Amino acid sequence: MSTQGKLLAIDGLNIVRRVYEASPEPDSDLKASIALRHAFSSFRILLETHAPTHVLAAFDHGGTTWRHALYPRYRENRAPMPGYLREALPEFHERLRQAGLHVLMLPEVEADDVIATGVMRWLQEGRGEAIVATTDKDLHVLVAHGALVWDHFKNEWHDDAWVRQRFGVAPELLHDLLALMGDPTDGVPGVSKIGMKTAARLLNAYGSLEAVVAGAGILKTPLGERLRAEREILQVSRQLVELKRDVRLGVTWNMLAYESH
């Protein structure tokens, strides 16, 4: 088997929603159709820029996921997708299929889980390089395993050095960092009064979340007290930010093979 493959995993709604929200006009079916036209161009540009041999186009299925089952308040403050956009999505998915892409939307998991499963499998099988097109923080943990993240909106690569510069920790510690600091947009609680800098400092000093809880969590300081008091919610936060890597995708690599038109 040739190892010269290149997987492009596209975080579909990440692109669609960014394009939609950047558009100044009020919510309407016209805004949705304009945004999806631009989003389709974004997909085209991604395919031309990276010339992948395989494409995983992942979208959130919607509805509750395993994360809601773990923590019912997950994403409770996140604004729902505008109705006009939701109604226009099936037609958009059909356009992507006609362009030769296989759209994956699986119930009870998020697109992040689908991408993480596909990318990890690809890399573990030694099939070549893996690129994730997203601006999502969580997916940057895949950089630790050899993937690269591509920010389509800034036209920039995010690699190991970028993650360290941006978050203050190595990619493999990113989920521990997000668990400590929480993520208000996703409703991940984290530990109160711990921001990115403090979380990074703790992780770099102790080496892992478990070591932070064991070490800093016994200190007679306000920080130590909070780590002790909020230990259980911290464990839940850590599970919420973890990416599932064992999703049954129901596709073969052949089904995801892409030939440019």
Automatic annotation (TrEMBL):
InterPro entries listed in its UniProt record: 5-3_exonucl_a-hlix_arch_N (IPR020046), 5-3_exonuclease (IPR002421), 5-3_exonuclease_C_sf (IPR036279), DNA_polI_H3TH (IPR020045), FEN (IPR038969), HhH2 (IPR008918), PIN-like_dom_sf (IPR029060)
The keyword ATP-binding is annotated on this UniProt entry: no
Gene3D superfamilies: 5' to 3' exonuclease, C-terminal subdomain, 5'-nuclease
Alphabetically ordered keywords of this record: DNA-binding, Exonuclease, Hydrolase, Nuclease
Organism superkingdom: Bacteria
BP GO terms, sorted: DNA replication, Okazaki fragment processing
GO function term, MF aspect, one: 5'-flap endonuclease activity
Domain 5'-3' exonuclease residues, every copy: 5-259
PANTHER family recorded: 5'-3' EXONUCLEASE FAMILY PROTEIN, FLAP ENDONUCLEASE XNI
Designated name of the protein: 5'-3' exonuclease
Source organism per UniProt: Telluria aromaticivorans
